[in-house]
């Protein structure tokens, strides 16, 4: 008898040390049901968007971008998560005694994270194309928020009394009601679990793992500047590592191959893919990253002031000269303020008008310079005109007799040899040009003048 009393006391102490499960997970507000599972997902999404937007702005992005893209990513993610769950656990919704309509009842639980990430990424890509931003830097910004959202969302499994592991007597084991324990294909609780009420809280393990992972992603991203999609790759690698280990504890119905659950193989493939991406993109911390399709990364690029006016500079013309992604946000903000102050001072200097006296003196000096140049030009023209006049004065005029003889000779030539007008015109023009050259050329001595005559 004393032995039975000790056993009963041990059982009572063990149950008091376990985690109790809620008696209900839905409340009705009039005709509208409020489900704890959906509430946890909504809270997780809000936290993820809030944190992701803060990180995106810290990288130099536009505020509100993550919210706009979440409008695409969240619905796609929910549909993808439900599709993955229904496809991999089709026996729960299709077959004899099953109702396919239950596949649409998402509030009963059942979201596959792999499908949620896959279709959620597709929705995010579509949203990025609409906003004109690149997917890789956005994924890096939202990765810690996704992990944090999973940490919150897993508590929806606690409200539904699902996602638990093998029987356990640990102080943190979770209590599961008889109606929620593992069942066979006919919906009857399996005999080996009929008398076992406490199990490993695998939902809690995954929640804590995701919480730690979110902190690690933020820390590692700052320490090693994990850009170009590497923060998101680290998230995938970290989550799949923890999920693969947790899958070994679960006992809910699932497809198995070679003694391992399907989710274990999926975790292994995801981990290898993420590790390969990190390896192939190692050393990119010093490579500048573009946040959108048209502009290089530059903090507050749209607000860079133009020293010559009030119109902002085109961000495409503000090429960074160094990798700014590794600069802390505080230093970037201070640099932007200093640049704005310098530009404002330059604009103020350019706007200052010259003093009236200085302007008058400058005008007087300019007028004096113009008058001096005009006077020098007049003197130079007078000096050049004197040799021409002297040369014309020294050239003797031809005699009347010689002029008459010349005229008679020309008349005889014209009468004997008719010459076309077109042929004589060039010769006459050449003689005229020679005469003008002789008149302009200064004559130095009498001999030269006589020879030319």
TrEMBL record:
EC number(s) reported in the record:
2.5.1.145
Q: Which UniProt keywords apply?
A: Cell membrane, Lipoprotein, Membrane, Transferase, Transmembrane, Transmembrane helix
Q: Please list where the region (Disordered) is annotated.
A: 291-453
- Composition bias (Acidic residues) maps to 351-363, 371-388, 407-416, 428-439
Q: Where does a 1,2-diacyl-sn-glycero-3-phospho-(1'-sn-glycerol) bind?
A: 154
Low complexity: compositionally biased ranges: 394-406, 417-427
Q: Basic and acidic residues compositional bias: what residue ranges?
A: 440-453
List the GO biological process terms: lipoprotein biosynthetic process
Q: List the record's Gene Ontology CC terms alphabetically.
A: plasma membrane
GO MF entries: phosphatidylglycerol-prolipoprotein diacylglyceryl transferase activity
Q: Which ranges does the record mark as transmembrane?
A: 35-53, 65-86, 106-128, 203-220, 262-280
How is it placed in the membrane, per its record?
Answer: Multi-pass membrane protein
Q: Where in the cell is it found?
A: Cell membrane
Q: What is its main location?
A: membrane
Pathway stated in the Swiss-Prot or TrEMBL entry: Protein modification; lipoprotein biosynthesis (diacylglyceryl transfer)
To which protein family does this belong?
Answer: Belongs to the Lgt family.
Looking up PANTHER family in the UniProt record yields:
PHOSPHATIDYLGLYCEROL--PROLIPOPROTEIN DIACYLGLYCERYL TRANSFERASE, PROLIPOPROTEIN DIACYLGLYCERYL TRANSFERASE
- Protein's job: Catalyzes the transfer of the diacylglyceryl group from phosphatidylglycerol to the sulfhydryl group of the N-terminal cysteine of a prolipoprotein, the first step in the formation of mature lipoproteins.
Q: What is this protein called?
A: Phosphatidylglycerol--prolipoprotein diacylglyceryl transferase
